[in-house]
Write a structure and sequence with these properties.
Two copies of one chain form a homodimer. The first copy, chain A, has ten helices and no strands. Chain A is mainly α. In chain A, helix 2 crosses helix 5, helix 5 runs antiparallel to helix 6 and helix 7 packs across helix 9. The longest helix of chain A is centred in the middle third of the chain and has 28 residues. The first copy, chain A, is elongated. The structure holds a DNA duplex.
Chain lengths: 208, 208
DNA sequence: CGATTTAATGACTCTATGGTCATTAATAGC
DNA sequence: GCTATTAATGACCATAGAGTCATTAAATCG
């Protein structure tokens, strides 16, 4: 309403702009990729003029970088917390872990950002590096901690070092990144997906 | 040599051009993404002038599409053949299956193409659709056949329908697509990777 | 209620590159 | 060897969109 015919255009809202611009950028990046997104459109969606974007971010790339920092790092920390404080079986921990990832990657923005990093990352070696250090490193640490914990509790079939943590999260990560290229039949409900994913990782396919 | 100071520039080689151009495009797309690749550079790498590219492909997008068709479809067929003709345990079949995928995605061009589809696919709804129909559909059929076969042999712990085939190949697919964003420590040798992947999918993590 | 500060604007510039096409020359046919 | 055909060329055009900046006006202050 305020936007439609509001008497006051040209509001001065220094504090609120950055995150509004990031939100607008994120939604357009996810629709059109990085190269395919026009700063003009980001501005329009944020309800401001193009020049205003440059008041807060020195370049398109800087805007993207701010989005990555804001949305991915906190997610990794959330997972670290979960593992550090959890008491219970590994099966239950893994389920909770997957739920957290699902929330951030499938329902939040982390999946979108990773998709863009993957597809257009060649353009931003700097960003890839940042992501590797800030996000990936932490995520893998957390998963290794989870495996060590399981090993210490005598729950593992094989030594913890023989399990590549990346394999465990691969299904969730892949779908978050690539759901568009899979046949459209849904991946089912959140609960269903997580249950199947857990079961496969914990017990495998084969009868014994 | 021939190129360096060769007496004959401007050779007429109608037959050889298309695949040479596709090769050049593929290598540049993988380095710079789709949007980041200049047709001028593709031409240079193929040893021809920019206009010549347009003699064989009507647009940049058409060139990319040709690459997808040529490199992905045949791969899917290779996997179908394998499953249809295999005799032996599911464990062994899965290993062979993974080897085939590894060859095409990690060592061949299929991974690169999928990475670009994912990252910049919003620009080519048509291409995503093509890929879904031509490649994904076949791949999933093949995997379902493999699961049904295992079920019929009494090797499965759970009904075949309860296993999402995409989860089984997710680790390989994810690494093929996203290896750049993971920490640089290698994923190990091909054999190692496949062995671990198989073992995890077949037997899971937990002691029983 | 002026005067001052600075957030916001959007018309403009400048570059990069996808795509065109008149010209050139390599081959084929005679 | 001459002519016709057409593959190959690269200078050129047109456009899009990132980034700039002189101007405008909202807030602040006295």
């Amino acid at each position: 309403m305020d936007v439609e015919q509001g008497p006051r255009r040209r509001q001065r809202r220094k504090e609120a702009r950055p995150s509004e611009i990031i939100d607008a950028g994120l939604s357009l990046f996810s629709e059109h990729g990085f190269a395919g997104t026009r700063l003009e459109d980001v501005a329009k969606r944020a309800g401001i003029a193009k020049g205003t974007v440059y008041l807060y971010f020195p370049s398109k790339e800087a805007l993207f970088e701010a989005a990555v920092k804001e949305r991915i790092v906190s997610n990794m920390d959330a997972m670290g917390q979960l593992v550090a404080s959890f008491e219970g079986t590994t099966a239950e921990l893994l389920r909770r872990f997957f739920e957290t990832i699902y929330t951030h990657m499938m329902e939040g923005d982390a999946g979108i950002l990773m998709r863009i990093l993957i597809g257009e990352g060649a353009r931003f070696p700097h960003l890839i590096e940042l992501h590797r250090k800030i996000a990936m490193q932490r995520g893998l640490e957390t998963m290794k901690a989870m495996l060590k914990r399981a090993e210490a509790r005598g729950e593992l079939r094989i030594p913890a070092e023989d399990i590549d943590p990346r394999m465990i999260v691969a299904p969730l990560a892949l779908f978050a990144i690539a759901k568009d290229i899979f046949p459209r039949d849904s991946i089912g409900t959140r609960e269903d997906f997580i249950r199947r994913h857990c079961d496969l990782m914990l017990n495998g396919m084969l009868a014994r």
